[in-house]
Amino acid sequence: MTTESKVNGNEVEHTRFIDAPREQVFDAWVNPHKLEKWWGPDGFTITNIEVNMQSAGCWRFTMHGPDGTDYPNRIRYSEIEIPSRISFTHDDDSDGKSEFSKHVSGFQTYVTFEEKDGGTQIRMRTVMPSAEALQYVIENFNALEGGKQTLGNLNTFCTKQ
Question: For a Cys-Cys bond, which of 3, 5, 97, 126 suits 16, CB 3.0-4.6 Å?
């Protein structure tokens, strides 16, 4: 199975079937020790800084790129509905001081987990502030491929448990 991706204006949607129970896939998203094992594109690792996995909570982490570059990240959860939905605002945790935040102030992501054929259909829809902001992250951060790889890493993690 592969990740399917669609771009429409200022939105990108990634969908993927994961051959693991919905509760297990959902837990991989909300358990900080599990997130460290799969989150991010291929070759990236993360270090958790602050973890509060609940509605109105915050997850701060640093993504470490394969080239040694560190990327500070912040996710603020607006909704965590066990085991079917997670919504959050994602920004770069620089309070407007990075090149990224000059182009993208943050973006909203909606993740749904649907039971299907004994596994989980995951849908990750990201809404950027504008079509230009989406184009910026696609061109400068390879965001489309990064989303595919992230869900591929989730699939590998969940199916090996």
Answer: 3
Domain that holds residue 84: 4-159
What is the per-residue pLDDT across 54-79, written as a single tens digit (0 to 9) for each?
Answer: 999 999 999 999 999 999 999 999 99
Whole-angstrom distance, CA of residue 126 vs CA of residue 10: 8
Residue 20 contacts residue 119 (beta carbons within 8 Å): yes
Terminus-to-terminus CA distance in the chain, angstroms? 18
CATH number at residue 107: 3.30.530.20
Query: What CA–CA distance (Å, rounded) separates 150 from 145?
Result: 9
Q: Which two tokens stand for residue 90?
A: 């994602």
Number of domains in the chain: 1
Distance CA 36, CA 115 (A): 24
pTM of the model: 0.93
